[in-house]
Amino acid sequence: MAEPLKLNFSAPRRGLPPKHFADLSVAERVDVLAELGLPKFRAKQLAKHYYEHLTADVAAMTDIPAGKRAEVQAALFPVLMEPVRQTSTDDGETTKSLWRLHDGTLLESVLMRYPGRATLCISSQAGCGMACPFCATGQGGLDRNLSTAEIVEQFRTAAAQMQAEGSRLTNVVFMGMGEPLANYKRVVQAVRQITGQDGAGFGLSQRNVTVSTVGLAPAIRKLADEDLACTLAVSLHTPDDELRDTLVPVNNRWPVAEVLDAAKYYADKSGRRVSIEYALIRDKNDQDFRADMLGQKLHAALGSKVHVNVIPLNPTPGSEWDAAPRARQDEFVRRVLAQGVPCTVRDTKGDEIAAACGQLAADEREAPAAS
């Protein structure tokens, strides 16, 4: 018998990133400014520059006293992410960025442009401890949780990039590296800043934010009680516990029925339809009986408050896991629909740029050092 996969719910202790404006409450920002000899109204000025003008360059903030700008930069806006490389595909519509954090940790984000909208796939952890065997990030393990500011900075840099292109960032999905609900406090703080209004954040609608999870049932319920209007996406990948124990090892702790019960609680509290993510894997979870079972269980648990996203698997190099054939995919969707559950195939982007989360970081770690 194969040795069971081990889950890692706690991040290894690494050097904490320096405190940043986005990590601090308004009162804490005022305290830092007071230490620099600046009045509290400067905190509102900085927030306007950061959230509205999308800049963290204090040298360009002409309403901040010139003699204090360097000190404010060092105290409140340290550089948290340095670009390592960026790759593009889909005629430039999809851009994947690899960043190096202050302690050498690698981080990925993906910006996807569509007609009339642009979506950022954001990371909540560097690596992931959930150990899903078909996921490149899960194969690499967990480095550490990201700070609130490291999450927020992914949004700000992408929003600034879209602004420079004469457009804007319209959607955010927490579907990058990591399990968002395993870094719960910082993810919620980041969501509140991404969606905050009137100088408290970037002003994105909560309805345009999706938080994904592999099924941490207690955290799903806790998120429901935050009274946010974000979409919850549950990475289910199979409707039966027997297979899900292998595909999503956290299922050993919170089985399918418990996850769906928590998802129903979220749907009832938020009024939002839950998205079920289903990576379709050849000969693993693509059988007719699983499509039927998926539709039946979702219809019974969530009624009309659910939608299934079938995701053609983006395989990692050398992996045994491969995408289901197109005919199998179409039949799977047809069977879920037949159970009265909305089901569509996600429009995938960036296959040729290692778009599966974790692939760029893995490539970078494995690359030989320059001589």
TrEMBL record:
The active site is at E108, C357. This is Probable dual-specificity RNA methyltransferase RlmN. GO terms for biological process: rRNA base methylation; tRNA methylation. S-adenosyl-L-methionine binds at G178, E179, S212, S235, L236, H237, N314. Belongs to the radical SAM superfamily. RlmN family. The keyword NAD does not apply. It catalyses: adenosine(2503) in 23S rRNA + 2 reduced [2Fe-2S]-[ferredoxin] + 2 S-adenosyl-L-methionine = 2-methyladenosine(2503) in 23S rRNA + 5'-deoxyadenosine + L-methionine + 2 oxidized [2Fe-2S]-[ferredoxin] + S-adenosyl-L-homocysteine; adenosine(37) in tRNA + 2 reduced [2Fe-2S]-[ferredoxin] + 2 S-adenosyl-L-methionine = 2-methyladenosine(37) in tRNA + 5'-deoxyadenosine + L-methionine + 2 oxidized [2Fe-2S]-[ferredoxin] + S-adenosyl-L-homocysteine. Pfam families: Radical_SAM. It comes from the Bacteria. Keywords: 4Fe-4S, Cytoplasm, Disulfide bond, Iron, Iron-sulfur, Metal-binding, Methyltransferase, rRNA processing, S-adenosyl-L-methionine, Transferase, tRNA processing. Its main location: cytoplasm. Binds 1 [4Fe-4S] cluster. The cluster is coordinated with 3 cysteines and an exchangeable S-adenosyl-L-methionine. GO terms for cellular component: cytoplasm. Gene3D superfamilies: 1.10.150.530, Aldolase class I. Its cofactor is [4Fe-4S] cluster. Its EC number is 2.1.1.192. One of its GO terms (molecular function) is rRNA (adenine(2503)-C2-)-methyltransferase activity. [4Fe-4S] cluster binds at C128, C132, C135. SMART domains: Elp3 (SM00729). Specifically methylates position 2 of adenine 2503 in 23S rRNA and position 2 of adenine 37 in tRNAs. SUPFAM superfamilies: Radical SAM enzymes. Reaction proceeds by a ping-pong mechanism involving intermediate methylation of a conserved cysteine residue. NCBIfam families: rRNA_mod_RlmN (TIGR00048). Residues 114-351 form the Radical SAM core domain.
